[in-house]
Q: What sequence folds into this?
């Protein structure tokens, strides 16, 4: 932990030593990971002011894209050089197993960041509009151009469950597009994000182009969503907070991009039921179910439900729950005591409404310290059960039976959420036909893809806009139409 350069916010090229101190806790053993100096609301206001200044000056936005790319590659090289420190921080503040921090959190994210730079450079950011020639002639226009320009000042607010992934997923496309960014990570896992500040300094990003502010509460985040100098808010987190951000951003008519909660369904067609145990294990493995895309509603043929429940329970019995320091552990704790209590509350609600706990449902024996919760299998009578309606954000899966394919699609779509989904079927054409009927932003048919080239985002209460892919880059750009003609 001593290799982190500073335990405070990075604003306009400076580290803000001093200020009130807050503690970051390790959820695996309830120890203190670090004490950080909190940014005040005034500090965060200064970050916004400097972001505005840097953007309006054009010191970053007016650079050729290839030069921005060179600087961001240097930014990534600094992070690469700090890999061991970053992995340690991700494990300590998030309680996730080492293999997940090293793989999905670090290596995959670094690859995605480099590919995002390449994708941006491959895209046209000024192009001719497909206006019919006769219409151009009638208007006296020689050329109609669509131009993509940076939005301006972006406030990026990231969640606790994947701060490094989500931070990079916002920073790289926003910065490549020429924006200035103020990043505010979750108070529960803010430390790894401070490395973005160190990387910005090492790479020579102009002061104000990237600031990283840490705070124990939400006052600074609220400033970022209301300040008229901020042009866009990009937020990943709960639907409840997303609604509040929409309300806070409305008076200044900010662009808002939201990736919010989910209650995704995984549908097993009759010819793929034997794969259910493996799919269920993926829900809770590594993240302890703390992933917005986690497919925590398992839909299986009603006449094979008992068979599936037995197989899933056996799979969950094989999951090793323990601290990340134990290399044998495949699932760590949830983030806090409050999150563990939420898991307990929804397990109780499930039972109160006709559900049955088949496996797990409580705190594992032998782990007195840390916020552990057992991998839990619920037999749910229908989709109206509270455990089927609400995002629990923990290692809890509910198994629901369906009568036929139409019923499975109906159940999957009967949700306020629409972030992700899965369909498993030996008949790929039939499974894909089901995927097309699901009202959700992404569907995996027999396999999944996390890539800089593929978009993600939600329908309904799961959000607005897209991240990753060309859509994720365009989210950080404004579109300008230019019509060019001769004087008559």
A:
């Amino acid at each position: 932990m001593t290799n982190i350069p500073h335990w405070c916010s990075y604003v306009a090229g400076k580290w803000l030593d001093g200020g009130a101190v807050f503690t970051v806790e390790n959820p695996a053993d309830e120890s203190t990971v670090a004490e950080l100096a909190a940014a005040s609301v005034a500090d965060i206001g200064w970050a916004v002011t400097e972001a505005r200044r840097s953007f309006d000056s054009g010191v970053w936005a007016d650079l050729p894209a290839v030069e921005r790319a060179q600087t961001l590659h240097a930014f990534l090289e600094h992070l690469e050089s700090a890999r061991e420190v970053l992995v340690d921080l991700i494990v300590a503040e998030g309680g996730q197993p080492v293999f997940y921090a090293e793989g999905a959190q670090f290596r995959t994210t670094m690859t995605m960041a480099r590919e995002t730079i390449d994708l941006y450079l491959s895209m046209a950011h000024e192009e001719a509009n497909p206006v019919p020639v006769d219409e151009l002639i009638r208007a006296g226009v020689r050329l109609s151009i669509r131009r993509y320009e940076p939005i301006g000042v972006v406030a990026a607010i990231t969640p606790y469950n994947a701060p490094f992934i989500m931070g990079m997923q916002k920073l790289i496309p926003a910065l490549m597009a020429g924006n200035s960014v103020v990043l505010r990570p979750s108070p529960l896992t803010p430390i790894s994000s401070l490395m973005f500040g160190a990387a910005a300094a090492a790479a020579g990003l102009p002061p104000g182009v990237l600031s990283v502010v840490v705070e124990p509460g939400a006052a600074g985040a609220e400033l970022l969503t209301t300040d008229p100098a901020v042009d866009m808010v990009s937020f990943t987190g709960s639907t409840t907070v997303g609604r509040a951000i929409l309300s806070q951003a409305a008076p200044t008519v900010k662009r808002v991009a939201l990736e919010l909660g989910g209650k995704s369904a995984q549908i097993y067609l009759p010819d793929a039921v034997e794969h259910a145990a493996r799919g269920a294990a993926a829900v809770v493995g590594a993240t302890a179910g703390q992933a917005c895309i986690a497919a925590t509603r398992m839909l299986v043929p009603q006449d094979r439900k008992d068979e599936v429940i037995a197989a899933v329970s056996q799979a969950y019995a094989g999951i090793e729950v323990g601290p990340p320091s134990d290399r044998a552990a495949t699932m760590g704790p949830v983030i806090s005591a409050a999150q563990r209590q939420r898991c307990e509350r929804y397990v109780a609600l499930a039972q109160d409404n006709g559900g049955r706990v088949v496996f797990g449902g409580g705190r594992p024996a032998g782990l007195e310290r840390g916020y552990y919760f057992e991998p839990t299998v619920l037999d749910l009578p229908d989709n109206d059960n509270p455990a089927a309606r609400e995002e629990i954000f923990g290692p809890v899966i509910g198994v629901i039976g369906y009568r036929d394919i139409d019923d499975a699609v109906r159940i999957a779509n009967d949700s306020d959420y629409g972030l992700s989904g899965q369909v498993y079927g030996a008949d790929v054409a039939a499974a894909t036909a089901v995927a097309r009927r699901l009202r959700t932003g992404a569907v995996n048919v027999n396999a999944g893809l996390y890539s800089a080239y593929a978009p993600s985002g939600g329908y309904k209460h799961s959000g607005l806009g897209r991240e990753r892919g060309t859509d994720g880059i365009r989210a950080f750009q404004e579109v300008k139409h230019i019509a060019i003609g001769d004087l008559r």
User: Anything to note?
Assistant: The domain at 265-451 is CATH 3.40.309.10 (Aldehyde Dehydrogenase; Chain A, domain 2). The longest helix spans residues 98-122. DSSP finds 16 helices and 22 strands in the chain. The two ends are 69 Å apart (CA to CA).
